[in-house]
Specification:
Order of helices and strands: EHEEHEE
Mean pLDDT: 94
Strand order of the largest sheet: 4-1-3-2-5
Number of strands: 5
Largest sheet: 5 strands, mixed
CATH topology: Alpha-Beta Plaits
CATH class: Alpha Beta
Helix content: 25-40%
């Protein structure tokens, strides 16, 4: 099955609501790899890697977010793989 890597930037009320921790939990549930981190502008960036179906499920989850968040926009970009991911991690600049 073809691997897909998506860079997502999630905007709205997404910091201070455990968005990164919930994103990691969702990634483990869907079986995707990559990372998530806060950005200085208040948005959250995620790199999601895996088979197409699980990646699409993860993207759908990012549009919803965790219960205490309010997602206003998700910007997606498919990228070429330039690194391998062993797991899904929370990154702290």
């Amino acid at each position: 099955m073809a691997q897909k890597i998506i860079r997502a930037v999630v905007s709205g009320r997404v910091q201070g609501v455990c968005f990164r921790a919930y994103t990691r939990e969702a990634a483990l549930r869907y079986g995707v790899k990559g990372w998530v981190r806060n950005l200085p502008d208040g948005s959250v960036e995620a790199l999601v890697s895996g088979d197409a179906d699980p990646v699409e499920r993860m993207i759908a989850w990012l549009h919803q977010g965790p219960p205490s968040s309010r997602v206003s926009r998700v910007t997606l970009e498919e990228i070429e793989p330039d690194e391998q991911f062993a797991a899904f991690e929370i990154r702290y600049w």
